[in-house]
Specification:
Layout: E1 7-9, H1 13-25, E2 33-37, E3 40-44, H2 46-60, E4 65-67, E5 73-74, H3 76-83, H4 87-96, E6 102-104, E7 107-111, H5 112-129
Antiparallel strand pairs: 1-4, 2-3, 5-7, 6-7
Helix pairs in contact: 1-2, 3-4
Length: 138
């Protein structure tokens, strides 16, 4: 298979939508789908069906999609860009242990999965803390 790296997918939205519809129509009662490609029949498990249809729907709506393994190590520049924070702030998060990291020589690496998990939890924390009290003030 080769080395796993991030892949950016750009495709024809119409083709992706048509394929998403075909996969969705093949879903059985247990959530899996039986697909027929040429002379082969393939049963796709429910979890994979959900991931494939979500990916195809994003592409069909014109959004760029990037696929990368969760274990992909990224440097601090990319990590800070993904979080929308400065590199010094990211370094503080890494030093505090909020996001696991490793060192390769003098460089720090963060697993993409750990980075995205932190972003999800931080987004949830901020949403929970968000109040609309300013609307009550007159």
């Amino acid at each position: 298979m080769g080395t796993k790296t991030a892949r950016k997918v750009k495709s024809t939205p119409a083709a992706a939508g048509e394929l998403a519809d075909a996969v969705t129509s093949a879903i059985g009662g247990d959530g899996s789908a039986r697909l027929f490609i040429e002379d082969r029949s393939i049963t796709v498990p429910a979890e994979l069906v959900a991931a494939i249809t979500e990916l195809l729907e994003d592409i069909s709506e014109g959004r760029d999609v990037t696929s990368a393994p969760a274990g992909l190590p990224v440097g601090t520049e990319i990590a800070s860009d993904l979080l929308g924070v400065s590199r010094p702030w990211l370094t503080k998060l890494l030093d505090r242990g909020d996001i696991p990291s490793t060192r390769v020589g003098s460089k720090r690496r963060v697993r993409l999965g750990d980075l995205l998990a932190y972003r999800r939890s931080d987004d949830a924390r901020r949403r929970k803390a968000l109040t609309w009290e300013f609307l009550d003030e007159e």
